[in-house]
C-alpha cells in the first residue's frame, strides 16, 4: 500500500511475505486512522506535501556540523511552515481529522530527521496561549503567533529545578508605579534551561516565574516575554540568552538558557486566565482548583502517548521489514539461511512492538476522548474530574514513554550491526523517544503522583465512599485474598487489576506500619516509594490492558473475520506477554498455578507462530511512507544493502580518496617524523 514510488523492484522475500498475508492490509490501516475517509485524506495530504525537493538532503543531516544542522533545520522549518500556511490549510483536509489529528506531526518527520526548532512554538507556546490567556489576551497574541510574527517557546525549567516547580527561583515582581513586572534571575541556578528553540530561534517565550506583589509571593505563574528584537533578532537589553550545547538527541532543537537582569514587561503580559494582578498590585486568584496553571503540561502528557505510539510503529516497521529481508545462520546443517524473522527469539523481540504500538495508540485515542470531557467540564467551571485525570495522564505518560523507549532499543538490537547505523534511523528515533521519559515530568515523579491518588482512593474504598471510574476496581478487590485465575483475555485483565490492588494494599500497610513505629507520614511515604512506583506501574498496566482489549474488540466489530482474528491475536499476545513478564506478581496476588504458567508460556509461543505470516502485513498497515521512515533498513521495497551503500557513499569522508590528515599526521608518524 505504501509503495509510493512504485517503480523499483521489491525485494523477493518481502514480496512473498505480502502475497502470503492473511488479511487486507488497508482494513487495518483504516482502523488505525479512525476510518477510511481519514486514510484517504491523510494520503492526499502526504502525496500533496511529500513531493518537494527540499526533502532530499545531498549530505545526510548527521554528517553536518552542529551549526549547519541547525541552519538546515531552520530552513526546512520555515519552508514547512510556509507550506502549511499557504497550501495545506487551503486544502481543507485537516478539519476532517479533528483535534486529535497527527497528520501534520506525521509529515513533519519527512522534513526533519531530528526536531524542528519550531516544535515548541506550535507544541507548547500556542497551546499555553489558548489555555492560560483571557479571551482579550488571546485575541492579541494568537493571530501573531499563528502567522509566525511572534515565535515562542515554553521556559519553565531552570538549571537548578525542573521537577519541583514550586522551587523555581526566577522572580516577577509587580511595580504599580509603572504597571510593569520586573523579571529577575537572582542566582545561576535560576537561569532558565532547556526550552526548545530558545537558544537561537524564538523572539518570545512563556516564562514561569514566582509572582511577587505588595511584598508577598503568590507562587509560580506564566508570563509572555519578548526576548529578541523583531527586526534585528538581537537579544533585548537585560536578557542573557544562548544555546545549551550538544545532547544525546534533539540536536536541531536549539534548546536554550535564559537569564533576566531586572527586565521589565507590561502588566498585561501576565497570562491572566487563572490569576490576575490589578493595576494597583492586588492579586486576584481565579483558579479554585489551584493547579490550573499546570494545564499545558497535562495537555502535552496526553499528546506524548500518541507521539511515542507513532515512533514505536516506525521502529517496528523498520525492524520487521529488515528481519524479513535479512538472512543469517542456518537452522539445520546445510539448509539455506533463514530470514531472521523466522527465529522465534526475533519474533519475541518484535511482535510485542507491533502489539504495543496498537495498545498505545488505542489507549491514546481513549485518553484524548477522556481529556476532551475534562476540558468541557472545566469550561463549565467543574474541576472534580481533574485529580483523577492528572493521575491517569501522569502514569500513562510515564509508562508509554518508558515502554516505547525500551522497545525501540529492542528494535535496534534486532537489526544487529546495521541497526547501529544512523541511516537506519533507529538511533534517532530512540534518542527522541528516550527524552520523552524525562521531559514533561520525569518517569518516577509522575508515577508517584499517580500513587498519591491511588492511596487516597484506597482510603476512600476503606471508608465505603464511591470511587471514580479508573479506580472503581479497588472496591471489588478490596478484601484481602488472591484474585481467582482465569486464562481468558478478560481473566488476565482482571488479574492485572487484582495485582494493582494487591500492591496498593501492600503500600498502605507499609506506610501505616512505618507510621506506627513513630515515623512521620512523609518519612513513611518516602521509605515506601519503591513499592509505590511499582503499584502505580501495575495500575497503569491494568488500565492499558483493559483499554486495549476492549477498544480492539469495539473497533473490529464490523471487520472481516481475518482482520478480527489477527487483531485478537495481537491483543492476546500483549496480555500474555505482560502476564509472563509479571509472573512473580501473579503468583503473589492471584490464584495462578504452576500448570497455568506453563499454559501461558505455551499459548504465547503459539501466538508468535500464528502472527509470523502476517508480521510484514501488520507493519505495512501502519502505512508509514518511506519519506517519513527515513530508513535504509525499513523502506517498502526492502533494498536494504543498496540503500546502505548509497548512504555510505554520501559521507563527506568519501568525497576524496585521501584525507589531508594522512599528510599532516599519519605519514609523519609512519616515517618517524612526528
Ligand atoms: C503539536 C504536537 C506536539 C506533540 C509532541 C510534544 C513534544 C513537545 C516537546 C516538549 C518538550 C518538553 C517541554 C517540558 O518539559 S516543559 C517542563 C515540564 N515540567 C514538568 O513536567 C515538571 C514536573 N513537575 C510537576 O508537574 C510538579 O512539580 C509536580 C506534579 C511533581 C508537583 O507539583 P506541586 O509541587 O505543585 O504539587 P504539590 O506537591 O504541591 O501538590 C500535589 C497536588 O497537586 C495535584 N497536581 C499536581 N499537578 C497537577 C496537575 N497537573 N493537574 C491537577 N492536579 C495536579 C496533585 O494531584 C496533588 O493533589 P493532592 O494529592 O494534594 O490532592
Ligand atoms: C530533550 C528535553 C527537552 C526539554 N524541553 C523543555 C522545554 O522546552 N521547556 C522546559 O521548561 N523544560 C524542558 N525540559 C526539561 C524537563 O522538563 C525536565 O528535565 C524534567 O521535567 C525533569 O526535571 P529535572 O531535569 O529537574 O530532573 P530532576 O528532578 O533533577 O530528576 C533527576 C532524578 O531525580 C529523581 N527525582 C526528582 N524528584 C524526585 C522526587 N520527588 N521523588 C523521587 N525522585 C525524584 C528523578 O526521578 C530523576 O531520577 C526538557 C528536557 C529534555 C531532556
UniProtKB/TrEMBL annotation:
GO molecular function: acyl-CoA oxidase activity; FAD binding; fatty acid binding
Cross-referenced Pfam families: ACOX, ACOX_C_alpha1, Acyl-CoA_ox_N
InterPro entries according to UniProt: ACOX_C_alpha1, Acyl-CoA_ox_N, Acyl-CoA_Oxase/DH_mid-dom_sf, Acyl-CoA_oxidase, Acyl-CoA_oxidase_C, AcylCo_DH-like_C, AcylCoA_DH/ox_N_sf, AcylCoA_DH/oxidase_NM_dom_sf
Main localization (coarse): other
Domain (Acyl-CoA oxidase C-terminal): residue spans on this chain: 490-671
The entry's keywords: FAD, Fatty acid metabolism, Flavoprotein, Lipid metabolism, Oxidoreductase, Peroxisome
Sequence ranges assigned to domain Acyl-CoA oxidase C-alpha1 in this UniProt record: 294-455
PANTHER family the record matches: ELECTRON TRANSPORT OXIDOREDUCTASE (PTHR10909), PEROXISOMAL ACYL-COENZYME A OXIDASE 1 (PTHR10909:SF250)
Protein name from the UniProt record: Acyl-coenzyme A oxidase
Taxonomic source organism: Manduca sexta
Amino acid at each position: 500500500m505504501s509503495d509510493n514510488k512504485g517503480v523499483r523492484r521489491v525485494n523477493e522475500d518481502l514480496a512473498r511475505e505480502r502475497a502470503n498475508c492473511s488479511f487486507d492490509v488497508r482494513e487495518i490501516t483504516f482502523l488505525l486512522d479512525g476510518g477510511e475517509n481519514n486514510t484517504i485524506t491523510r494520503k492526499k495530504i502526504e502525496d500533496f506535501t511529500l513531493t518537494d525537493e527540499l526533502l532530499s538532503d545531498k549530505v545526510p543531516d548527521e554528517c553536518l556540523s552542529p551549526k549547519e544542522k541547525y541552519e538546515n533545520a531552520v530552513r526546512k522549518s520555515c519552508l514547512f511552515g510556509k507550506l502549511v500556511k499557504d497550501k495545506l490549510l487551503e486544502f481543507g483536509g485537516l478539519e476532517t481529522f479533528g483535534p486529535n489529528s497527527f497528520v501534520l506531526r506525521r509529515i513533519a518527520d519527512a522534513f526533519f530527521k531530528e526536531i524542528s526548532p519550531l516544535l515548541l512554538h506550535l507544541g507548547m507556546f500556542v497551546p499555553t496561549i489558548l489555555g492560560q490567556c483571557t479571551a482579550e489576551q488571546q485575541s492579541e497574541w494568537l493571530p501573531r503567533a499563528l502567522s509566525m510574527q511572534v515565535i515562542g517557546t515554553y521556559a519553565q525549567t531552570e538549571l537548578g529545578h525542573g521537577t519541583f516547580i514550586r522551587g523555581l527561583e526566577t522572580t516577577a515582581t509587580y511595580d504599580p508605579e509603572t504597571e510593569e513586572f520586573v523579571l529577575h534571575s537572582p542566582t545561576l541556578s535560576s537561569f532558565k534551561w532547556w526550552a526548545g528553540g530558545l537558544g537561537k530561534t524564538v523572539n518570545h517565550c512563556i516564562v514561569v516565574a514566582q509572582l511577587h506583589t505588595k511584598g508577598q509571593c503568590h507562587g509560580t505563574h506564566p508570563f509572555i516575554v519578548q526576548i529578541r528584537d523583531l527586526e534585528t533578532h538581537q537579544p533585548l537589553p537585560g536578557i542573557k540568552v544562548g544555546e545549551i550545547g550538544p545532547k544525546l538527541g534533539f540536536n536541531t532543537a536549539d534548546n536554550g538558557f535564559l537569564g533576566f537582569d531586572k527586565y521589565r514587561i507590561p502588566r498585561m503580559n501576565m497570562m491572566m486566565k487563572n490569576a490576575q494582578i490589578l493595576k494597583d498590585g492586588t492579586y486576584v486568584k481565579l483558579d479554585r482548583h489551584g493547579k490550573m496553571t499546570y494545564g499545558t503540561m497535562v495537555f502535552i502528557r496526553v499528546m506524548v502517548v500518541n507521539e511515542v505510539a507513532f515512533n514505536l510503529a516506525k521502529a517496528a516497521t523498520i525492524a520487521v521489514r529488515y528481519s524479513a529481508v535479512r538472512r543469517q545462520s542456518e537452522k539445520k546443517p546445510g539448509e539455506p539461511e533463514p530470514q531472521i524473522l523466522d527465529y522465534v527469539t526475533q519474533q519475541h523481540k518484535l511482535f510485542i512492538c507491533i502489539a504495543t504500538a496498537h495498545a498505545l495508540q488505542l489507549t491514546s485515542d481513549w485518553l484524548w476522548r477522556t481529556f476532551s470531557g475534562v476540558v468541557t467540564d472545566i469550561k463549565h467551571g467543574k474541576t472534580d474530574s481533574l485529580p483523577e485525570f492528572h493521575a491517569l495522564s501522569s502514569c500513562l505518560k510515564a509508562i508509554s514513554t518508558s515502554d516505547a523507549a525500551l522497545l525501540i532499543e529492542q528494535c535496534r538490537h534486532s537489526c544487529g550491526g546495521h541497526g547501529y547505523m544512523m541511516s537506519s534511523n533507529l538511533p534517532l528515533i530512540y534518542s527522541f523517544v528516550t527524552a520523552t521519559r524525562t521531559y514533561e515530568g520525569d518517569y518516577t515523579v509522575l508515577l508517584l503522583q499517580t500513587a498519591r491518588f491511588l492511596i487516597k482512593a484506597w482510603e476512600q474504598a476503606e471508608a465505603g465512599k464511591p470511587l471514580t471510574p479508573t479506580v472503581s476496581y479497588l472496591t471489588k478487590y478490596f478484601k484481602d485474598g488472591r484474585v481467582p485465575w482465569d486464562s481468558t483475555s478478560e481473566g488476565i485483565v482482571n488479574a492485572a487489576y487484582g495485582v494493582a490492588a494487591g500492591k496498593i494494599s501492600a503500600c498502605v500497610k507499609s506506610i501505616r506500619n512505618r507510621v506506627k513505629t513513630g515515623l512521620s507520614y512523609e518519612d513513611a511515604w518516602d521509605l515506601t516509594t519503591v513499592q509505590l512506583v511499582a503499584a502505580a506501574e501495575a495500575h497503569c498496566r491494568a488500565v492499558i490492558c483493559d483499554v486495549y482489549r476492549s477498544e480492539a474488540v469495539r473497533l473490529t466489530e464490523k471487520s472481516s473475520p481475518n482482520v478480527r482474528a489477527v487483531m485478537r491475536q495481537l491483543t492476546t499476545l500483549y496480555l500474555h506477554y505482560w502476564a509472563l513478564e509479571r509472573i512473580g506478581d501473579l503468583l503473589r496476588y492471584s490464584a495462578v498455578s504452576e500448570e497455568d504458567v506453563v499454559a501461558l508460556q505455551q499459548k504465547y509461543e503459539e501466538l508468535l507462530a500464528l502472527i509470523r505470516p502476517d508480521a510484514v502485513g501488520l507493519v505495512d498497515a501502519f502505512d508509514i511512507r518511506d519519506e517519513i521512515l527515513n530508513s535504509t533498513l525499513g523502506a517498502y521495497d526492502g533494498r536494504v544493502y543498496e540503500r546502505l551503500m548509497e548512504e555510505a557513499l554520501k559521507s563527506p569522508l568519501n568525497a576524496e580518496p585521501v584525507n589531508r590528515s594522512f599528510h599532516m599526521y599519519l605519514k609523519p608518524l609512519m616515517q618517524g617524523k612526528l
